[in-house]
Design a protein that fits this description.
The protein is α+β, with helices and mostly antiparallel strands. Helix content is 27%, strand content 26%. It has 7 helices and 15 strands.
């Protein structure tokens, strides 16, 4: 699907990224820091050229603990230098100094009272190097606009699978139709989530096309930046200053029975997304707990922004994004083509 740019009025800076792991550094921003006491051990791990599930398996084997007892907050790319917490049972502490894994370093080990769970994550800090940048000024201009208005919170292409058909499979499942190959439980969850994500991306794209990306509309569901609380907008003229200050943001649909409904014209536009796919709200009941529904902000704050021209055509970007947002979407807004286009 076409995904309009927020920065459409700014020329593409060009460039390539992720040529080597050292060009793509990611550091988790944890939701909390380990307390120092408890029955679990939080390992601050740096890895190169290995993905998170692979490291979990290897670490569990060396520490002699079941793989399911290793906790992670989020998954990190293989082709990158990444730092993140992994938790293991505290009984493994004596074996930690002997850990030896290619491409992996345990930087610290601190006890905590609970196992690390998926989503125990505030966000991620990125340091990315772009090569072959044609227009550094355009990069700075695009990033300044993203810093002011927020990054369009699209789901990235990786959400939809290598063949790009995960969402189509999710739609078939919701309609009660069979796939050519019965999906595993993991695949079923992946396909259903991809269909929800596709509908969200379409709603976001429409807001950008209509110029309402940073506007509070009557009937919008607005999300509070500090608490994540949701409410329906009944007075746009009152809420718009809060949107301008990034205190609240319009939040788009992840359809399901527990999703907070919008009102008025906003609700009608969201219903039209379902109608275009031949789907009705009750179809999401077939997803059971995998399609309960939620709201996702249409934009996210870009924090800790830094731009450094290391040499002609080589630019280092630094920024932080909330959990669940895609660094590739920020690069797409800056590069407009090349290796960040998905």
């Amino acid at each position: 699907m076409e995904r309009p740019y927020l920065t459409a009025g700014v020329p593409g800076a060009g460039g390539l990224f992720k040529a080597t792991p050292e060009d793509f550094e990611v550091e988790e921003l944890p939701a909390y820091v380990p307390s120092g006491t408890g029955e679990h051990l939080f390992l601050w791990v740096e890895k190169r050229g290995r993905d998170t599930p692979e490291v979990v398996r290897a670490l569990a084997a060396q520490l002699e603990v079941p793989e399911q007892e290793v906790g992670v907050a989020g998954l990190k790319d293989r082709q990158a230098v990444t730092r993140q917490y992994l938790s293991v049972p505290a009984r493994a502490e004596p074996r930690v100094p002997a850990v030896s894994l290619d491409g992996v370093r345990v930087l610290s080990a601190v006890r905590h009272g609970n196992k690390l769970r998926t989503g125990h994550l505030k966000g991620n800090r990125f340091r990315l190097r772009l090569h072959g940048v044609r227009d550094v000024g355009a990069a700075r201009e695009a990033l300044a606009l993203l810093e002011r208005s927020g990054l369009p919170n699209y789901f990235g292409a990786q959400r939809f699978g290598r063949a790009g058909d995960n969402a189509a499979k999710g739609r078939l499942l919701l309609k009660g139709e069979r796939l050519p190959k019965a999906p595993t439980r993991f695949e079923r969850r992946l396909f259903l989530s991809a269909f929800q994500s596709l509908l969200f991306n379409r709603a976001l794209a429409q807001r950008l096309r209509e110029g309402t990306f940073t506007r509070a509309l009557m009937g919008d569901v607005l999300r509070k930046e500090d608490t994540g609380g949701l409410f329906v907008c009944e007075a746009p003229e009152r809420e718009q200053p809060r949107v301008d200050r990034f205190e609240v943001s319009p939040a788009g649909p992840l359809f399901g029975p527990k999703m907070l409904e919008a009102a008025g014209a906003v609700a009608e536009a969201e219903a039209a997304l379902l109608a275009a796919e031949g789907v009705v709200p009750s179809d999401f009941l077939r997803g059971r707990g995998e399609t309960e529904g939620a709201r996702r902000p249409y934009r996210v704050r870009v924090a800790e922004l830094a731009v450094e021209e290391e040499s002609p055509g080589v630019v280092r970007l630094g920024f932080a994004l909330p959990a669940g947002s895609y660094a590739t979407e920020l690069l797409r807004e800056v590069i407009k083509g090349g290796s960040a286009e998905e």
